[in-house]
C-alpha cells in the first residue's frame, strides 16, 4: 500500500491507522454477521458519504466469505503468555496521557500450519480484566 502512487502524500502513520480502523470494522461486522443496513448505519454515524458506504458494502459482501475461509479452520492454541507494564506519557499525536498499559505477547500454535506466530497487543487494566 505504501508504494501506491495515489497514497504517496499521505503520512504513513495515518495510513496505518486507517488500515487498522478498516480492518477492525470489517472483522467486527463479520463477527456480528452484520447485514448491509447495519453496516450502512454505522458508517453513516462516522460521517462517510453515501457513495463510499455503497462501495464499502458491495466489496464487503463480495469478499467476506473468501477472506474468512482463508483464515484457517482451527482456532489458535495459546501455549505461553508474557507481559510487561508500560507507562505511556504521550501518544503519537503528542497528547499527554499518563496512563499505564500492559503489553501482552501470546505464544500460539495452529494445527493447520507448521509456523507458530506470536500475537502481541497492548491493553489497559480494565481491558486486561475483561480478557
UniProtKB/TrEMBL annotation:
- Span of domain COMM: 77-131
Identify the Pfam families for this entry: COMM_domain, COMM_HN
Stored InterPro entries? COMM, COMMD3
State the Gene Ontology BP annotations: sodium ion transport
The UniProt entry's sequence similarity note says: Belongs to the COMM domain-containing protein 3 family.
This one is known as COMM domain-containing protein 3
Organism listed in the record: Crypturellus soui
> Gene encoding this polypeptide?
Commd3
Amino acid at each position: 500500500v505504501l508504494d501506491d502512487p495515489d497514497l504517496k502524500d499521505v503520512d504513513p502513520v495515518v495510513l496505518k491507522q486507517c488500515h487498522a480502523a478498516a480492518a477492525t470494522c470489517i472483522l467486527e461486522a463479520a463477527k456480528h454477521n452484520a447485514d448491509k443496513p447495519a453496516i450502512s448505519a454505522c458508517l453513516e454515524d462516522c460521517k462517510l458519504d453515501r457513495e463510499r458506504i455503497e462501495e464499502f458494502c458491495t466489496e464487503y459482501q463480495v469478499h467476506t466469505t473468501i477472506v474468512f475461509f482463508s483464515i484457517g479452520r482451527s482456532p489458535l492454541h495459546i501455549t505461553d503468555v508474557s507481559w510487561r507494564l508500560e507507562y505511556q506519557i504521550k501518544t503519537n499525536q503528542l497528547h499527554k496521557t499518563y496512563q499505564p498499559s500492559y503489553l501482552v505477547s501470546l505464544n500460539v500454535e495452529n494445527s493447520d500450519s507448521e509456523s507458530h506466530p506470536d500475537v502481541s497487543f497492548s491493553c489497559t487494566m480494565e481491558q486486561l480484566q475483561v480478557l
